[in-house]
């Protein structure tokens, strides 16, 4: 099974002395994009998306409480890599990419006293486009039964979130006033909201990438992944 995976037409083993190793790794990432999105059953690798979060605290002040619950994130498979840099001596990788669309479906719960008291729950749809991301990844080499294996020990991603669009499904009786008030709140506080939500998104995305990557590499020795050749 493992040999079949390595022999697949979309996988090209990258020699550690290959002068074009960065391009080789990048080609593999691009070739595997659809497989990663759907999952790789032959390796028991789950689908990359959706990413699910129980709760996101958007605002929690005495006057404004705004939560997103049952958060479902899609669109993470729709990315374009701008550059990939590898340093196998330090087992470090840096990837610069664009997430074309991040789409969030959730249930919102807002309790606000901005102009008038508002207490409302409903469905929320959030979308942000063209998000630049810088990912830094570190591998650790371990030995088992005389063979070397690797795992991704650290993953940090920095999302350059600038703006977003949000739609809230509100009660028809309160649509006009609630939409106006929430629009004022969201429109005038985008930077503050992004500052709160961004690190939470970065954390869950990093954990997801760590999970997927380690589920893949645990099946192979270091020499199978990066043989000592050009």
Automatic annotation (TrEMBL):
It comes from the Eukaryota. GO terms for cellular component: extracellular space. Coiled coil: none annotated. InterPro entries: Haemolymph_juvenile_hormone-bd, To_sf. It holds the Pfam family JHBP. PANTHER family: PROTEIN TAKEOUT-LIKE PROTEIN (PTHR11008), RE70318P (PTHR11008:SF41). This is Circadian clock-controlled protein.
């Amino acid at each position: 099974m493992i040999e079949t995976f390595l022999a697949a037409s979309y996988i090209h083993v990258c020699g550690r002395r290959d002068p074009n190793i960065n391009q080789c790794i990048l080609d593999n990432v691009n070739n595997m994009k659809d497989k990663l999105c759907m999952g790789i059953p032959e390796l028991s690798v789950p689908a990359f998306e959706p990413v699910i979060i129980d709760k996101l605290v958007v605002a929690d002040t005495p006057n404004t409480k705004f939560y997103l619950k049952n958060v479902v994130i899609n669109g993470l498979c729709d990315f374009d890599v701008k550059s990939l840099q590898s340093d196998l001596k330090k087992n470090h990788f840096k990837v610069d990419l664009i997430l074309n669309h991040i789409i969030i479906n959730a249930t919102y719960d807002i309790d606000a006293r901005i102009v008038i008291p508002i207490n409302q729950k409903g469905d929320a749809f959030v979308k942000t486009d063209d998000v630049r991301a810088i990912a830094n990844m570190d591998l650790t080499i371990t030995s088992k039964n005389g063979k070397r294996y690797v795992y991704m020990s650290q993953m940090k991603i920095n999302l350059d979130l600038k703006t977003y669009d949000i739609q809230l499904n509100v009660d028809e009786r309160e649509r006009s006033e609630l939409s106006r008030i929430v629009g004022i709140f969201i429109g005038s506080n985008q930077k503050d909201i992004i500052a709160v939500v961004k690190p939470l998104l970065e954390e869950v995305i990093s954990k997801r990438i760590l999970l997927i990557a380690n589920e893949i590499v645990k099946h192979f020795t270091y020499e199978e992944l990066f043989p000592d050749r050009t």
